[in-house]
């Protein structure tokens, strides 16, 4: 028999399962999705990607794009839905630069708040 059809040796360990991967690696894989909606879809389709992995994947997705997402407001029952909404809102309404100097910038975000960056 050829090597490709030969039965594996009894000493061969079983193939690695997705759940055997470190949580951080799964989060990183999820953050590579194109959008937070895609991450939520993965979490909804597969029980392997439970809500906490989706949450961390969306947070990492946002950080990799240079922004932090706001905390979940009281009364909002679904954290994944809130983070998806916040990430999509932030992505579609990037902060506008109002002023800049050599070492600082001022921004007005989508909610009208003034923010500064730099010294």
Structural write-up:
Helix 2 runs antiparallel to helix 3 and helix 3 (51-64) runs parallel beside helix 4. The protein has helices spanning 23-31, 36-45, 51-64, 79-92; strands at residues 96-100, 104-108, 114-118. It has a domain at 20-93. It has a three-stranded antiparallel β-sheet with strand order 1-2-3, with no helix packed on it. A hairpin with a 3-residue loop joins strand 1 (96-100) and strand 2. With 119 residues, it is of the alpha+beta class. It comes from Emiliania huxleyi. InterPro entries: F-box-like_dom_sf.
**Average residue pLDDT:** 80
Q: In which range does the helix fraction lie?
A: 25-40%
Number of strands: 3
**What structural category do the secondary elements indicate?**
alpha+beta
Unreliable residue runs: none
Radius of gyration: 21 Å
Q: Mind describing the biggest β-sheet?
A: 3 strands, antiparallel
Number of helices: 4
Side by side, the strands of the main sheet go 1-2-3
Straight-line distance between termini: 70 Å
Organism: Emiliania huxleyi (Coccolithophore)
Protein name: F-box domain-containing protein
InterPro entries: F-box-like_dom_sf (IPR036047)
Give the topology, please.
Elements: H1 23-31, H2 36-45, H3 51-64, H4 79-92, E1 96-100, E2 104-108, E3 114-118
Antiparallel strand pairs: 1-2, 2-3
Summed up:
By secondary structure, the protein is of the alpha+beta class. Helices cover 39% and strands 13% of the residues.
Features:
119 residues; alpha+beta; three-stranded antiparallel beta sheet; 39% helix; elongated
